[in-house]
Structure formats: C-alpha cells, structure tokens
Amino acid sequence: MSNRAHAATSPARFGLTEERAEEQLRAFGWWQAGGPAEHAADLIGALSRSPDPDLALRGLDRLRDALGDDWAELERAITTEVGVRGRVLGVLGSSTALTDFLAANPNLWRELDGRMPTELPGQDDLIADLLTAVGADPEVGEPGTRDGTTAALPSAEAIRVLKSRYRAWLLRIAAADLAHVVEASLPVPEYEAVTACLSDLAVAALQGALAVGAAEVGPLRCGLAVIAMGKCGARELNYVSDVDVVFVAEPDSELGQATRLASAMMRIAGAACFEVDAALRPEGKAGALVRTLEGHLAYYKRWARTWEFQALLKARPVAGDLELGQRHVDAVRPMVWTAGDRDDFVADVQAMRRRVEEHVPVGLGERELKLGRGGLRDVEFAVQLLQMVHGRTDENLREQSTVDALAALGAGGYVGRADVAELSESYRFLRLLEHRLQLQRLRRTHLFPADDDRASLRWLARACGIRADGRRSSGEVLVAEFRRHANRVRRLHEKLFYRPLLEAVARVPTEELRLTPKAAGQRLAALGYTSPEGALRHIQALTEGMSRRAAIQGALLPVLLDLLASTPDPDGGLLAYRRVSEALADTPWYLRLLRDEGAVAQRLATLLGTAKVIPDLLVRAPEVLRLLADTKELAERDPAEVAQSLRSAVARHADPAQAVIAARSLRRHELLRVACADLLGLIELPAVCHALSSVWSAVLGSAVDAAERAVCAERGARAAKLAVIGMGRLGGDELGYGSDADVLFVCEPLAGFDDSAAVKYASAVAEQVRKLLSAPSQDPALHVDADLRPEGRSGPLARTLESYRSYYAQWGETWEFQALLRARYVAGDAELGERFREMIDPIRYPDGGLDHAEVVKIRRIKARVESERMPKGGDPKMNAKLGRGGLADVEWTLQLLQLQHAHRVPELRTTSTVDGLAAAGAAGLIGPEDVEVLDAAWKLATRARNAVTLVRGKPTDQVPSQGRELAATVRALGYPASMDPGEFVDTYRRTTRRARAAVERLFYA
C-alpha cells in the first residue's frame, strides 16, 4: 500500500498521530481494515474534534482499565449518546489533571451522563452537596455563626471528602463548558454562566471549610463573616485562582476565637480546594486577620489608600454570619463612591496599573494574559476607574462584574457602544484562553504559549473551538486572534483609562500643558490617530489664541477627539473638522450649536470621519448642521414639499443663470440632508432613492422653466409645449448620489407653429438646460444625458410626440424599447408627458411579447456590455453596476421578463426594479427564492454604490475590498464598528454570486 493510501485509511487523518493509536482503536474494537468500525464512526469523528485526540484516546484507555467490567456501560454511552460523548471527550482531550482525577474515580463518569442537566448547577445545590459531604446539616444555621452547622467527620476525613466533591463538581462544570467543542449540537454555556458557577462552587467550598473549622475550634461564642473580594466577589472566578477574602467578627471580646476559626478555614480550604488569600484586609498581611466592623470602618475612614477602595468594589458576603457581612458591605460601600473625590485619585489608579504592569517578567509581557499590555487587567482597571469616577452620581454603574459594569457604562453613555461591544468581546476571549490554559493541568497560569510551541498552540486553539481556515493552521489563527484582541484591548484601555488627559491634549501647546507634545502624541496614537503630529497641529490651530472661539474649541475637542477616534478615519475626520470650523469661523451659531447640542457633535464626528463628501457640501450648506439636532427634520422631510419649495424659490429669479444657482443651492442642501440621514442610519434605501430622484426632477423642472423664459425672450414667442421624460435610474425613481439624469425631451407645437418651429424651439430650450446645469461648480455634477434619444447623439435633441411615434414604429430597435421600460414623466408639461407614456406603452409592453430572435439579441447586447464596458483593473466581482450579480444583471433580467410578459401581466408595468421583481414573483415568472436573491443583490449593490460614493466624495461603481476605504464604506452602510470589514466583502460576494446564478438561469437560460 502506498504511503498516500495508508494515510487515507489510518487514524492519522482523524488527528490520532501516536504510533499506538491504531493498535488502541483495534483493541477497543473501533477500527477495522480501511477505517472506523461502523458502530464507532461517530465516536472516531468526535475523537478527531477533541482538542487533543491522542490525549483523549489515552484517557479512554485508562478509563477502560480502571472500570474493568463496567467499561461496557461507558462504551455504550459514548458510542450512542451525543451528550455523554461530548462531555467525556471534551474533558479527556483538554485536561490531564481532570483525566487523572476521573481515572482515579472512574465511576464519576456517570455524573456526566445524559441525565446531566444542560444548565450549570446553582449555588444552593453546591452548598448543600459540599456541606452534606463533610457531615454538616444544610438545614441548620450558617457555619461560622454561634448556632451554625458543623462538620461531623474528623478533619482529615472531611478534607479528603471535601477535596473529592470539589473536584467532582469542577469536573461537571468543565464537562458542560467543553462539550460543545467536540459536539457542535450541544449548548454553549455563556462566559458569565461558567464564571458564576465557579464562583458559587468556591462559595460552597468556603462554607464547607468553615463547617469543618467550626468543628475543630469548638462551640462558637462569636460570629464570623467571610467577605469575598476580587473575582469571587464579582462572581467571575477562574477555574484555578486564589479566593480573596476579608474577615469580620463580633463581639470584640471573642476576636481570638474568630481568628482561630478564620485560620482553620483558610488551612482547610487550601488543603482541599484552593488558596484563600486575606491580603486585601486592612494593613494587608501586616494587619490583624480578623477585625470587628467598627475596626474596619475606623481604618477605612482614616488610613485606607485608593487601591483599597478600588478592591472594595467587588466585596460580597458569602459565608459565615451573612447578616454581619452585609452590614459590613453596606457600611463601606458609600466610602467607595466618595474615593473619587480624593486629590490625585485618577493619577493614583493609573500609577497602580503601571506598577502592576512593571512586575511582569521581562520578555513575557506580550504573552501575559492577565497583567501584560492588552491583558485582562487593562480592561478591569479601565472599567473600575470609570465606575469610580462616574458612579458617584450614577448608581446604575455600581455593578460588581467587569462585563456588567462595562455594559452599564455603555448604557449610560460613558463609553461608546462600539467600544463596549469590542471590549466585552475581547475580555471574554481572553478569559476563555485563561480558562482553557488553567484547565489543562489545573494550575494557576495566565501565560499564552510561545509562537514556536506549535503543539500547545494547536491544542489551545482547538480547546477554544478555533479551527484552521484553509490558509492558516488552527494555531496560526489563534495567534492572530490573540494579537488582534490584545491590541484592541490596549487601544481601548488607552482611550478610556487616560481619557482625563484629553483636556490637556486639546490645549497643546499652551502654558497649562500637562503633557509634553511627545506624550500627547502617544495618547492620540493610542486613540487610533495614525498621524499624531498632524492631529496636534490641527488641535493647535483650532485652540490657539485667547478668543472665545478658541476657548469653546478647547472645551469641545476632548469630546470630538474621542468621537472621531471611533470612526473609520480619525485623521481625515479631524482635518475635515478643522476645514469646516475655519470655513464657518464667522458663523455665530456654529460652535454654540456644537457645545449645547451633544447629538450634533456626535453625529458630526461620525459624518466627518466616514465620508469625504460631507465637508465639501457642509462648508457650502452649513444650515444643514442645525438639522442634526432634530432627527425628524433631518430624516422625515416630504420630498414633494422639498420639490415645491425649490420650484418656488427658483421662480423668483428672472435671470436663468441666477435661477439655476438658486436651484443648485437648494439641491446641495437636500443632497447633504439626505446623505447625513443616510450615513446616520435614519432613512432606508427607498427613501434615499426617492428623495434624490425627486430633487433631481425639481431641478430639471426649474431649469426648464428658466430656459423657456430665456428662449422666449430671445425668440419673441413660445412655440411648443415641452415635457422631460426621465429614463434609467431617474425614470425608475432609483437615483443614487452619483447618478446622471438620463432624459428625453418631447415637444408639441402650439397653435400657429409647425413641427419644425416646435423642434427648433424645444431643442434650444433643451440645450439651454444642459448648458445651465453643466456650468462649472464646486457642487456634485449636474449632468443631463440625452443619449437615449432616437438616433442617439446624431439625432435632434428634442422631437415631437408624433416624430417619436413614427421613429419607434419604423426604426426602433429592441434595446430602445427596453430603455423605454423605465421612461417616466419628470418635468415640463405634465399632460404631454402623460400622452407620451400612453404612446410608448404598446411599444415597451409589446403584444405577444418577444420572439426568440429578439431575446437572443438582448442577451448578446448584455454580454457585449459585460465584456466591453467593465473598467480595466477593477475587480469584476466588486463592481456594483456591471459586475457579476450587480445592478445591470438584475435590471436586465427583470426588463427581459417585462418585455416578454408585461402585455399580459399588468403588474409588471412599472419603472421600479424592486416593484417589478415583486410582480414577477407574484405572477410566477420567478421563483420566490430567486426573487429574494435578486432583490437582495440589487439593494445591496445600490447601497454599496451610494456608500462608496459618499466615502470617496466622487461617483464610482467599484466597491473597495480592502483598506480604510472599505472600513469607511462598511460603516457608511450602517454595520457596527466591531464587525470585521472582510465580513462585508464576503457577504457582498456571496450575495452577488447567488444573484448571478439566478441571472444565468433566468436571463441566459
């Protein structure tokens, strides 16, 4: 047998690489010549998915030896029951320590069987089980109180039993936590549920240890309260961790007995479960182990340092005299929320974080999950600082767990929602790594494997549910994810933890500077500015001098710098803000609006940091800024009302050039309003397209009115009626930000004039319209395109209605009839426009549809357009207009159906692509799935084309697939900042790929 053939039939293809793997599998009866035995196929597959298949197989071998005749029961369970298989193999492939424990206590596998509840155990169940195990009665009073329960077993036996039950529960929790890694159908416990359960188990262990200690000490004459601190207090404990506690006792006369009880509890818990650390007590290890409540209060009022109040954030009574413990917490908690009033409070907390970081061993900082840069402490210190600063007045922030506190900070607006989402995601990821590393050997560790330790990286990646992605191994994917999350945490830590220094950064370089320019630049870099030096120059330009304007800018910039930092382009946004501020320097309400309306500042930062088109329009239409404070005014204006207002304003100008300038100004205002509402996610795509089409139609109507007045004045009389017919996207009411206006000009002679005079008059008006609208301007172009007229550019600019009728009857080609499908009256004489529609309906909806030759002709034209008009150098898959599955694909498919069937399906007689697709689906011409696919692709391509035009500040069909423009486009589309922009590229390509497949079936047959 060749090596390749052997590999295909060996256990190696299931990740079992040890030499004895096949021998072991055969001994189990799970392997036969050529592969897994039929009855064991699912089991071998599950083995291959375990974090370490070889380790899991060795563990099963040990269990078989340990169980003897009872092995058959376990074998049957792991072969047939998904839940048992996932839990057992999850543990065996992840933890050598728990495997050792299970091999020593093999019958415990039954606690992992199919009857195990999917939810994790509750604290009451855990306490009852551990107290009962040591011979204490859970129904008697709390251990550690005068009448509390005590252990009946001798100390040595009680410690042994407590250790065994603690490990058994740890095994159950780990099994529930790991099972989904092996069997994806099993539930995935939430991070918060796992840490809460581990904390509850620690509380149960403390109570069990306290019951054993109470039996040793003898009849109690005191009450002892155990206050959990740190992660146990916040119910976010690790698998392996010291449990931080503080002891409170009464009465004062029995502190000696209380101290003996506390010492005994610490010794027993340390021998059975985990180390108990009381170093957070007043005066630390040098202070008394146990104090009265009054003793604690006296110390905290007089001597406590800032970090001690920070530690009290997570204090919670968990064992012993719970009433006394609650009184302690209630008494010290107000002191926590006044600690922020201390001099240098923020500096103290920041210094403490720096000292912690300095204690990380040299060379390990990049791998330290807990204390290193971008580690867990970065999140916790930032959250706790913000809690203690803002929690003085906002009680909603007084949460104990890091994740809950972070969510409260986000809900209260103290931290941006995107930052909360990113920081929470990264914190959970780092905690997951910490849990898996600790589970391996049940050792307290926070050290990420070295880059060259491939075996450890592979195991850790698989234990976390991370697999290879085709280009990279699972270990490489894990390293990339770890670096990404660590870098994100550090960036957000700098942003949040050093936020108080932004005021100094905003005043660079004044006499009150608290940071050197270098340090200020470092802070800006931490916020996400790629050119801190350039940002500092902008800040200096905005704040220099002693004017009131400079003072207001100095107050605004800390907020704006923070807001801009969360946009795709902070540097470009700050430059745009400077441009707008300098252009509007003499506008009295500008800075006042930003200062007094928080929503305006926030929205402006989002707009300036996302789209280049915004500052270009804003300096010429600053009045739109006021609308940012009023969502209804910004997003809910009636396009018909806007159009009427534009026509009325333009009608007041006799000079055609001035009339068009007025029309441009109102269009600029409306274009900016719609763009702002669109970028801020306040209006949907149909409203965007309708508003843009409506304002374009109003501009055309105003230009026609102005041009007619000019031509009449020149010629002395009005010779014809004139109607403007919108074509293409204008006719479909589907204009985008960069679309031209495709039109036809239709005329009809008035009494006393013949057709020739009418055409000359109408052509002169049409030419004047094009000339007026195409005049040079700083605004987005107003290009009127009449190339779809009969004979194209070589034909007359305007024709009479009868001339159009005659041309289409004698010379019209199929593609011209197809173009007429989107023809719609938009300006000029409405009655003439309606008669034009009546004239073309039989042409664009031909009786009997199309014959085969005409269908083939349309397909050939479409194919030629695809091959000849696609821009060179661009990615065809990312071209929104002509790309595969893009706008042209969807529109041509619908238009072919309209030409074929609209004569018998009246609902197809629409210029709207979306409505036409729905009508085709309702008529059974397209299947529901194809309607959904085509509709989704058309909408996504339209939105993407609009977004990239706003981001780049100029019309374009090419959607970026990488870089900052992609990130900005994704944000402009309304996706959250936490989303990887690559996900949008995948979504876009997947959506258009499906649409192209539908087009291949429906259009090209």
TrEMBL record:
Signal peptide: none annotated. Belongs to the GlnE family. This is Bifunctional glutamine synthetase adenylyltransferase/adenylyl-removing enzyme. Keywords: ATP-binding, Ligase, Magnesium, Multifunctional enzyme, Nucleotide-binding, Nucleotidyltransferase, Transferase. It holds the Pfam family GlnD_UR_UTase. Residues 509-1005 are annotated as: Adenylyl transferase. InterPro entries: GlnE, GlnE_rpt_dom, NT_sf, PII_UdlTrfase/GS_AdlTrfase. Its cofactor is Mg(2+). Residues 352-497, 862-1003 form the PII-uridylyltransferase/Glutamine-synthetase adenylyltransferase domain. Residues 1-501 are annotated as: Adenylyl removase. Residues 147-327, 602-838 form the Glutamate-ammonia ligase adenylyltransferase repeated domain. Involved in the regulation of glutamine synthetase GlnA, a key enzyme in the process to assimilate ammonia. When cellular nitrogen levels are high, the C-terminal adenylyl transferase (AT) inactivates GlnA by covalent transfer of an adenylyl group from ATP to specific tyrosine residue of GlnA, thus reducing its activity. Conversely, when nitrogen levels are low, the N-terminal adenylyl removase (AR) activates GlnA by removing the adenylyl group by phosphorolysis, increasing its activity. It comes from the Bacteria. It is an enzyme of class 2 (transferase). GO terms for molecular function: [glutamate-ammonia-ligase] adenylyltransferase activity; [glutamine synthetase]-adenylyl-L-tyrosine phosphorylase activity; ATP binding; ligase activity; magnesium ion binding. The keyword Transmembrane helix does not apply. It comes from Allokutzneria albata (Kibdelosporangium albatum). One of its GO terms (cellular component) is cytosol. Its EC number is 2.7.7.89, 2.7.7.42.
